[in-house]
């Protein structure tokens, strides 16, 4: 499962992109509204940093305006994927944008039947919101399982290869959502920076590093040996 970052903040993308784990990003109107600065420039910068798909959302209720906004968003950067909210109008816009070879992320999908419609309309990504389902006491894992099963009956080709619809787990609230999405066979999870940072931490990792470091420092000859080893490499020589 690929990991996207769900944010409108360039600084957050810059920070987490250094980890080498991000394959893309998603924004939405709320996330963009929470930050200052030109939104178009921010979307372009995020596209450059992640070097992969970045969803930017249309805000209209009729297909014509959705399509026009979608073309304008796509013109910002080649990596832009146009995010379209689920509705009859959204399906029509998705079909038109997909026919124009513009990738669409159909968002606010909350059931397997909606996901089937989104896939038939040509959406490349289908975003199901885990947190918002759990908020209203609907088991998000069960819904996602239904979506994955409906879109991917046994024997169907891998969607990364055949350009089929990819299931994207969104509205992620904690690391358990990410692991659950992966285990259910989702193709992508878009994860807020806060949750990505939570995924880093484990008390046994921190205490393990502390113990390795203090054991190493208790034997200075080991440090001298490693410094010599590094100095003998081209990178070590160049850093002197
Ligand atoms: C998805 O692409 C959305 O931007 C996002 O995951 C919504 O999450 P929220 O429910 O935390 O607002």
Rg of Cα set: 21 Å
List the strand order in the largest sheet. 1-2-3-4-5-6-7-8
**What does the main sheet amount to?**
8 strands, parallel, barrel
The overall pLDDT, averaged over residues, is: 95
Q: How would you describe the overall organization of this protein?
A:
The protein is α/β, with parallel strands linked by helices. The chain has 14 helices and 8 strands. Helix 1 runs parallel beside helix 3. The chain binds erythose-4-phosphate (E4P). Erythose-4-phosphate (E4P) binds next to strand 6 and helix 7.
Q: How are the elements arranged and paired?
A:
Elements: E1 2-6, H1 10-17, E2 22-26, H2 29-33, H3 39-50, E3 54-57, H4 63-74, E4 80-85, H5 88-99, E5 104-109, H6 112-120, E6 125-129, H7 130-135, H8 140-151, H9 159-162, E7 166-170, H10 175-183, E8 188-191, H11 193-200, H12 203-217, H13 220-231, H14 234-238
Parallel strand pairs: 1-2, 1-8, 2-3, 3-4, 4-5, 5-6, 6-7, 7-8
Helix pairs in contact: 1-3, 4-5, 6-8
The protein binds erythose-4-phosphate (E4P).
